[in-house]
């Protein structure tokens, strides 16, 4: 059974415990200086990088319009704006574009859900970076022998029945780990205000608190790129929180499978045609060469006879 994570952005306080847990579990170093500017793990400029497999991005959002506020606007304390914190990492697609684009099979999705990267198989082509609709895989540009990096969803922990390290340390239960289908059903019940279903999971008081949060009617990751193992719910529009909204609903590999199959057929046909042409041209070349050799022999014989006479 595939596992997943439900992320409720209304609960995140930006403590960065998940970032620290990710660094410690995966032995990723904190980089203070490098040839290029170090990527921040928190704040408004936080972004994923080869050393940052998870980050917490800080967003200012208007409580009136729901729009994201520019950093240049002075901070208001009159209730007209709020802070929202977005926990980012690989979303672990159900049908990963990185896996389908990698001819070296360095990316593989397990039955449990995590999409794992195997550096010993990687040839550094970086096709995965072009294929990923969420811009997740990162290249180690500053290393002499660079590889790709990304969140593995702590696959070893998942295989043993434990939640990813970031989920395990979260003090406000922003992330909920479990069977994907159950998490998706819970998210739909929260957005649909299905009190009867939620009574199986929460007390009446907790349900009232959930309903008061005013979630937007969108479960990010339910349909994006064919669906992802990490899904999000929020009380603010995902577009204003920096989520990619131009991701197609279909799984990315589905766009190329038909062409790949056709390309294989075309390749076989062309191989047959070129092989035939090679055989034919080789035969003609050999025949012409033999003919030239006969003519040359005949000429030399005639010249020899002439000289003898």
Fold and architecture overview:
With 309 residues, the chain is α/β, with parallel strands linked by helices. It has 2 domains: 3-251, Alpha-Beta Plaits, CATH 3.30.70.20; 257-309. It has 9 helices and 10 strands. It has helices spanning 17-26, 97-101, 127-131, 155-159, 165-169, 180-191, 195-198, 204-212, 253-308, and strands at 3-8, 42-43, 55-62, 81-88, 107-109, 115-117, 138-139, 148-149, 175-179, 230-233. Strands 9-1-10 form a 3-stranded mixed sheet, covered by helices on one side. It has a 3-stranded mixed sheet with strand order 2-3-4, with no helix packed on it. A hairpin with an 8-residue loop joins strand 7 (138-139) and strand 8 (148-149). The model has no long low-confidence stretch (mean pLDDT 88).
Give a brief description.
By secondary structure, the protein is of the alpha/beta class. The protein has nine helices and ten strands.
């Amino acid at each position: 059974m595939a596992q997943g994570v439900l992320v409720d952005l209304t609960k995140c306080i930006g403590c960065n415990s998940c970032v620290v847990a990710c660094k410690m579990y995966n032995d990723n170093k904190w980089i203070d200086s490098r040839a290029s500017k170090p990527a921040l793990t928190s704040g408004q400029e936080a972004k994923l990088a080869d050393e940052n497999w998870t980050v917490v991005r800080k967003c200012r959002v208007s409580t009136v319009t729901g729009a994201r506020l520019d950093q240049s606007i002075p901070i208001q304390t009159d209730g007209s704006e709020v802070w929202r914190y977005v926990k980012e990492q690989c979303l672990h697609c159900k049908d990963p574009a990185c896996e389908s684009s990698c001819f070296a099979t360095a990316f593989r999705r397990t039955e449990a859900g995590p999409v794992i990267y195997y550096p010993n198989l990687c040839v550094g082509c970086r096709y995965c970076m072009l294929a990923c609709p969420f811009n997740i895989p990162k290249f180690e540009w500053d290393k002499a022998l660079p590889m790709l990096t990304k969140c593995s969803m702590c696959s070893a922990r998942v295989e043993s029945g434990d939640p990813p390290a970031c989920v395990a340390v979260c003090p406000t239960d922003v992330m909920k780990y479990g069977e994907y289908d159950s998490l998706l059903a819970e998210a739909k019940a929260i957005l649909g205000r299905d009190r009867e279903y939620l009574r199986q999971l929460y007390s009446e008081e907790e349900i009232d608190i959930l309903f008061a949060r005013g979630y937007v009617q969108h479960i990010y990751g339910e349909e994006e790129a064919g669906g992802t193992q990490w899904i999000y719910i929020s009380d603010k529009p995902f577009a204003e929180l920096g989520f990619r909204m131009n991701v197609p609903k279909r799984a990315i590999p589905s766009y190329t499978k038909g062409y790949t199959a056709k390309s294989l057929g075309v390749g076989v046909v062309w191989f047959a045609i070129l092989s035939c042409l090679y055989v034919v041209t080789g035969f003609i070349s050999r025949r012409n060469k033999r003919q030239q050799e006969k003519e040359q022999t005949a000429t030399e014989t005639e010249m020899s006879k002439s000289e003898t006479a």
